[in-house]
Every structure is written in C-alpha cells, then in structure tokens.
Amino acid sequence: LVDGRPVDLTAKEFELLVQLARHPGRVYTRAQLLDQVWGSGHDSYQHTVNSHINRLRAKIEDDPSQPRFIQTVWGVGYRFFDPALADA
Prior knowledge:
Elements: H1 11-22, E1 28-29, H2 30-38, H3 46-60, E2 70-73, E3 77-80, H4 83-87
Antiparallel strand pairs: 1-3, 2-3
Helix pairs in contact: 1-2, 1-3, 2-3
C-alpha cells in the first residue's frame, strides 16, 4: 500500500522491494540484486536492475526523480531507506 492505496507490482518488482526492505540501509550492488532476485547467471544484465528500480520508484515514490525510499548510492548500487527507523 502507498498512502492507503494498493500498488500493483510485478513479481520481480515485489521480490526486489522485499530484498531491499529486509535490510534497510544496507547497500546492494546491481550484481548482488541480480543474483538474489533473478538468480545466478544474469551477470551481464545489470541494466535489468536499473529498469526495475525505475519502474518500482514510479509506483511507490511521491517523486521518482527524488526517491525517498529506494536510494541510489552512486558508484555502488541501491539501498532502502525506512523513515520510521530514521526517526527512532
């Protein structure tokens, strides 16, 4: 749910979100996300992660160009930011 509304995610978008959200703050490389979400053998398809991240951001972020939840760590990969944990 986003703002109380259901969000339709593909299976891979959901798996990607779950992988990131399980460990908020942990930075995952594209290769790690490929391995954990798509399985081994997808090493040359790192652009797939970028595409799925972009689609996921469009569905869950208020402003996908300024993501609050799925953040890019330049030169490394992506992490999930949980504002509830930041406030604690």
